[in-house]
Specification:
Helix content is 75%, strand content 0%. With 222 residues, the chain is mostly helical.
């Protein structure tokens, strides 16, 4: 026990010394983004998911307003630096139309052919499209705005993969085929946000895809 206490004390001393002397140059904004993002996702898993219809409003507040408040009042930056703007709207509009058109047959095939997908999404038809709007606008800003552009300042293009990883892990519990695809889908959404300098266009695509899959799964379409 005494040896363990000495080891812990020495570890803390070395760690604090490295921080104080600049030998462990941590970026405090990256730390805030990482810690807050992780805590919000964990709270969603343990608490938000247990809510009824209020889950959409809670996610809207948690994933949109909390990052915005931190950006404005703690980071002292403008939200547009994190993709909260129209960005390159012409490019964004083109990407939205093309991606939606390409994904329509994929979503139709998945929703019609996979029993797990139909069972998972059929009951979500109530309240569309506004439930998905509230559910996804904060979600997209969280990953394709707050995390993507926050990480990009330090890690450059690698932020495209870095934001895709927690995005994929946040889908655990959803239908397997969908979850397995999200590492690639998350990267694609991030690339669109990166190219347009806005989270808006990945949001519009995601909103369309989610609404369509629910409508097909519920038998409203097809």
């Amino acid at each position: 026990m005494q040896k363990s206490a000495v080891l812990i004390k020495e570890t803390i001393r070395v760690f604090t010394s490295e921080l104080r002397n600049g030998l462990l140059p941590l970026d405090w904004k990256i730390a805030v983004i990482s810690v807050v993002s992780t805590l919000l996702l964990l709270l969603d898993h343990y608490h938000f998911n247990k809510l009824a219809w209020s889950i959409y409003l809670v996610r809207f507040i948690a994933y949109l307003f909390i990052p915005l408040l931190i950006i404005i009042f703690i980071f002292r930056e403008h939200p547009r630096e994190y993709g909260f703007s129209l960005g390159d709207w012409k490019r964004g509009a083109a990407y939205t139309v093309i991606a939606s058109a390409l994904m329509t047959p994929v979503i139709y095939t998945l929703a019609r052919g996979d029993a797990n997908t139909r069972a998972y999404y059929a009951s979500a038809v109530i309240g569309l499209p506004w439930t998905m709007f509230l559910n996804l606008i904060g979600w997209e800003f969280f990953f394709r705005g707050w995390i993507l552009f926050g990480y990009a300042r330090k890690f450059g293009h690698e932020a495209l993969w870095l934001q895709a990883v927690p995005f994929a892990l946040a889908h655990v519990g959803k239908p397997e085929l969908e979850t397995l695809s999200t590492i690639f889908g998350g990267f694609a959404f991030g690339w669109i946000a990166w190219r347009t300098k806005s989270f808006l266009y990945p949001f519009l695509i995601h909103w369309y895809i989610s609404t369509l899959i629910i409508l097909i799964a519920a038998g409203v379409i097809g």
